[in-house]
Each structure stands twice: as C-alpha cells, then as structure tokens.
Amino acid sequence: MIRTLVGFDTTSRESNLALIEWVRDYLAGHGVASELFFDEERRKANLFATIGPKDRGGIALSGHTDVVPVDGQDWSTDPFALAEKNGRLYGRGTADMKSFLAVALALVPEFVGRELATPIHLALSYDEEVGCLGVRRMIAGLEGRPDKPRLCIVGEPTEMKPVIGHKGKRSLRCHVHGYECHSALAHEGVNAVEAAAEIVAYLKSMARRFRDEGPYDPDFVPPYTTVHTGRISGGTALNIVPKDCRFDFEFRFLPGVDPEALVEEVVRFASTRVEPEMKSVRPETGIQFEELTSFPGLAIDAEEEITQLVFALTGANATGKVSFGTEAGLYQKAGIPTVVCGPGSIDQAHKPDEFISLEQVRACEGFLRRLLDRVAA
Ligand SMILES: [Zn+2]
User: Fold this and answer.
1) Residue 190 belongs to what domain range?
2) What's the predicted TM-score (pTM) here?
3) Pair 114, 211 in one domain
C-alpha cells in the first residue's frame, strides 16, 4: 500500500485526484463509501469515509496526500518508486506522510470485518504542505453533521509518540512601493529597498525580543515564538533608486500567543516609522501587507480523552510538542480534540532520500490494530 501511494506524484502543485480516485475505488471494493470535498477548480479533493455507524461521530485518522517537491534534490533512487533497502522504505512521502495513510488503508479489511461501536473515519486532505489549505473545506463541510468526528489522530511523523502541541504560523508578504530616479539624485526618489530593509530589521528586533524575553514554553524547540524573513527582491540597477521591493516573512508562534498582535506590531512600525518619511518625498509611495498563509497552533491537555486514548494505544505515558505545523490545530479549532501521532521521523521529511523504517511501519500497524480492538463492539 505504501508503494501504491508513493507511486502517485502528489506534489502540492499537481492534482491529487488520481490518488484520491484510487483510494475511493479501493474503499468501495470493501463496501466503504467515500465523500469527496473538492477545491474550487475540482483539480484536487479531500476524501472522507466512515467505517461503522454513520449516526455518530467517531475517531478520525487524518493525513495529507500531498508531498513537497523533489526539484533540485539529489535522490539516489526514483522518489516516486518505492525502494526497500536495509529495513527502510525510500520514496517521497514515506515519512511525510503516506505511510500512515497506507497502513490505515491496508487495515480497512480488518476494520470492516468487525462490528464497530465507535466509527472510524478516514480523512485524507490536499494542500497541507502549502499552508494547511485543503483540509479546511472538509472540516467546514462536516460541521453540524452527526458524523462529524468526535476525536482525531493526525498521523504526521512523530515516531509514534503522542504530540499534543505545535506552534501556529502566520506568514505575510510586504510590498514597498517607492519612487524611481537617478541614484545621483537619491534625495528626490523613495528607495523601496531601504524602506524594506528597515522593516526587515524591525522584524529581526522582534525575533531577538522573543528569544531574550519570551514568552517561553520549554516543551518547544526553540521555546519561543520565532520571526523570520525568507525572501526579498527589489531594485534593478545600482544607479537607479529602486521603485519596488517585496519580501516574505513569517511568525511561528506559541499556542496562546495572539498572531494578530504580532502582525499589528509590524504594520504599526511600517505605517508610523517608515511610511511618513517616504510620503513626505512622494505622497503616492507606500507600504502594503498581504496575507500568505496562516494556521493555528495546537494545545491539548494530557488529561483529555484523545490524549489518554493515544497513551493507551502507544504505551507511552509522556507527551511532546513540536515546532512544525500540522492540520491538528485546525481540527482542534473546529471542536475536535486532536493528537498528532504517526510513524517515521520529521528529520527525514522534505529531504532527498526520504525514508521510513519498517520497524516504524510495524509500530503503526500495532497502534491501529489496538485502536480497532477498542472501537469494536
Ligand atoms: Zn506532513
């Protein structure tokens, strides 16, 4: 099953429909009906299917079908053809996160063979890697329905350890519109690169403040909110005062930190400390911010039912928190308590020669079989 799923090139920019239709047909072959939640262009879809009673919410096994690109990465094998070597399975998505979905799908015959008191939902999403975009439609579509999941397990790679917290993310693009002129007459122009640099420097000062003053949560690495500028472009030639500059930046915030306040702070700096000087030279200049992506953080208590369930299934009695984002925060926001727990390591994700160990695959199988024993009537 892992081989089959890895064989579909579901890089986020591509359609995932070939994989989704394959899964739909496979489930139909076992008498399980699927519901698809399409994107605007019907190029991609989420899949939702329930095994067991349909009149109540059960436990969702959730994962994304998309994978990150392999462009420019030096792979030893074809990333979309599973290769087994020394107890490891190599291929794009083996760790992040087709193996969890594959194990769940492979066990469908066992799940349909038992009478379930609590239903098991399979929830497959698209466009997770580009900002947790796709799953939002499925979560919205399930709202108010009797079969809206009551609890959820997101199988992102945690080496089968229960993860009850992750950071949220807010990313933006800033456009600085300056005024072009000969650089010998720099005083008559408005230098967009310099204005952008002042804002980037301010973002860096925020990053230092969070690092040095908190707030802190020692369960995260690093234990504070991070701020980072990842791309910048502007200017055309050294002897021209640049008219345009754009840069992309992000906040990775601790659960409990208000991302609106972070955005407001940088917008306020730009509008009160940078823009007035620009406009005093040329009133038509200015600074604009555009939202890129955002998703909420995750914060679940160790005492909650879903955490206790995952403890029982893994045999773990300690929880962790991670700095990477997942769809779990969106489920929690929708009133579905969610824990992240899946096979493989995030260390292998997004890299060339991504792999999962067979030992992790087996651990995931055991985990889901124990779940079956608990939900069976
Ligand atoms: Zn992932």
Assistant:
1) 168-295
2) 0.89
3) no
